[in-house]
Amino acid sequence: MRFSIREFHMMTGLKCSGALEGPRREPERFNWELLKGRSHKLSDVVDQLRNTREDASEERVCLAMLILVESILLRKSKGGSFPLEYAKNAQDMTYPWGKEAYIVLLKSIQNAVANHLENKSKFELQGYPLVFLLWILESIPLLRNKFSKCVPTVEVPGPTYLCEKYTEIENPSLDRVLQVETDTKLKVHCILPSIPHDPEDDISIEDKYSDELETVKDVTKKGYKITADDWENRCVDTFDTLDALIQMMANKETGQASTPIDEFSK
After folding, report:
1. Distance of alpha carbon 195 from its chain centroid, rounded?
2. What angle do CA 98, 102, 105 make, to 5 degrees?
3. Where do the structural domains in the chain lie, given as residue ranges?
4. pTM
5. Considering the chain, what percentage of its residues have pLDDT values greater than 90?
6. CA–CA separation, 51 vs 45, rounded Å?
7. What is the pLDDT of residues 157-205, one digit of tens each?
8. For the DUF1985 domain, which residue ranges apply (predicted)?
């Protein structure tokens, strides 16, 4: 199972492409009090919004967006402070908050695993942990069917991100989850299929283009199923993959060719 920035984007639809900028050097667009310190709290942003003129619509939108970002996407423990850069970046409506939120959540998950996750009954994740839960439900359909409710699939012109279909999600105990794990029909989607018309389907956190990664993406789109040996070896054998794809195509062509014969025999 892969939880990369692509899967984070698929769950949320948030903008994840683009560079995370450092501290801005150009003059600030808005004269906010919370820009005068090294950090700020969520309550400071709320106070700034309340003290902003009602006709300053663009400024109020930026502040409202920052409240949503810090209270949902980048959420920390109660009373925690946020770096000054967040307030500066909030003045840019095209800033990739999705990438920022993914990094915060990923580091939190990595810290939980490093602290011997298997020996603890509870752990705390920062950022937007609901995305991690949705990814698990999407990757394991039996869990999704058992512990959530979704709206029927509807065809729309643009992309439909996966969070949009959930209407209810349970908080099951570990015992109930383990019961599902023993089901003989349990299936896992190692890499989630693409969302139609998604402009960021190929988003990657990698700084450099990878021929190997593009090859893996290409063969999975063509129908190759990554095996347990692939994951254990941390690589995909090119020759074995090509043989598997050729065999799949041959079986498909054989099935199509046999159809007229079956119909004729009837």
Report:
1. 12
2. 140
3. 21-95, 211-265
4. 0.72
5. 36
6. 10
7. 788 899 999 999 998 888 898 888 888 888 888 888 888 889 998 888 7
8. 1-107
Residue 28's identity, in one-letter code, is E
* pLDDT tens-digit readout, 203-229: 887 545 667 777 777 777 777 777 777
* Amino acid occupying residue 109: I
Neighbours of 69 (CB within 10 A): 23
Q: For residue 14, which of 191, 134, 180, 109 has the smallest C-alpha distance?
A: 134
Q: Which amino acid is at 51?
A: N
Amino acid at 48: Q
CA 66, chain centre distance (Å): 20
